[in-house]
Amino acid sequence: MNLKNRPLLLVATLSLVLLAGCASMQKMLKNAFKQPRLTFKTARLTKASLADATVDLVYQLDNPNPLGLSLASIDYAFFVEDKQVVAGTPPKGLDIAAKGKSELVFPANVKFADIAPVVTTFLTKDSARYKAQGSVGIKTPIGVLKFPLEHEGTFEVPKIPQVQFESPRIANVTLQGATVEFPLTVTNRNSFPLPVAGISGALKVAGSNVGNLSTGDLGMLEPGTTRQIKLPLTINFLSAATAANALRSGGNAQVKWDGKLVSGAQNVPLDVSQLLNFRR
Description:
The protein has helices at 6-32, 112-115, 119-122, 241-249; strands at 37-46, 52-63, 69-80, 83-87, 95-96, 100-111, 127-140, 143-148, 151-156, 162-165, 169-173, 177-187, 194-196, 198-205, 208-214, 219-221, 226-236, 251-263, 266-278. By secondary structure, the chain is α+β, with helices and mostly antiparallel strands.
């Protein structure tokens, strides 16, 4: 053998050994690697208002392997009532724990004005249909594995809070007018927090316009809770004759409040009409 060819032969031999070793290693990895499992877990509303909401679709990835994995690719679309909305994705490169379970959260921002021509009509629905489609690629030692994200279901449509008066209290009566304290209860009928930026409108007592009531910003109403606000109003008898008679004599009078409730960027018409007992 030509001595000059010995280094080339040595390199070739080493290359074959390495290739054989790599092939053996790949085979061992394939035999040892266990298939991860991606399952749908839940759909939940976050940052919900009467104008929009973020719908989080939560998937769970079970990784039975002793090494961590990561996201490689995402192809995802989200539809509500058959209309596509803006959908987000988990950050690429998200680490997936070894020998454990990891949540993959796919958020979608749903603006109700994009779903229905009349938002207040949409808000009367108990639920809305959604559909997710696409796939997610998981980077593994044996290559990128693709998992489908197909899922259909419904989510809870935000409900308009219930607003009603309790018995008003007449704090002071003079010949010219009276100061009346109107207790107002606002109930969040949803299973999630709801922001209420304010409730305001014109008030009538016994058919007479007596002024405007406004709650100011109520902030975030917790799920299923009731907030009570006392709203004082000075009523001028000269401009509200029928109200004057009702307030001077006490007893019952019809109260009507026409206005709006603001939540997020949405104004919802408000019409509260009750027969109330005015007490001193």
